[in-house]
Amino acid sequence: MRTQAATCSAVALVRRVVDGFLRGDCRGRFVCSGCLVKLTRDHLDKSCATSEIVRMMDHIFTAPNPIAHAPASTCALCARTNRPCLGVPLPNAARPLPQYPHA
Question: Would the pLDDT of 88 be above 50?
């Protein structure tokens, strides 16, 4: 039972880190699992193994709410295409207005 609780709290920690990236520097962009693992690994202390972060990231990708999941997208960081990505879309009001040529 203790292992399950520790796993849940570790997944929650990684989810908070990922959510922070996606709502901060990466807001409005979609980022693939590989890049999110690297960002998370760099952010957390060295006591958390990369394999554990990968496993926890799999949990986040299977239940991404409230983060948006794009099953096949281009990663904003590594530019790889057709990758499953997570992101937090910009609200409609924050999108730039289209520029129309003057008539």
Answer: yes
pLDDT digits (tens, 9 = 90+) for 67-78: 888 988 999 999
Work out the burial of residue 44: count CB atoms within 10 Å of its CB; fewer than 13 is exposed, 13-18 middle, 19 or more buried. Answer: middle
Q: Are 70 and 89 in contact (CB under 8 A)?
A: no
Tokens representing 54 are 């990968």
How far apart are the C-alpha atoms of 15 and 30, rounded to whole Å?
A: 15
Residue 61: count other Cβ atoms within 10 Å of its Cβ. Answer: 18
Per-state percent for the chain, helix, strand, coil, to nearest 5:
50, 15, 40
- Annotate 22-34 with b (16+ C-beta within 10 A) or e (fewer): beeebeebbbbbe
Domain ranges of the chain: 2-87
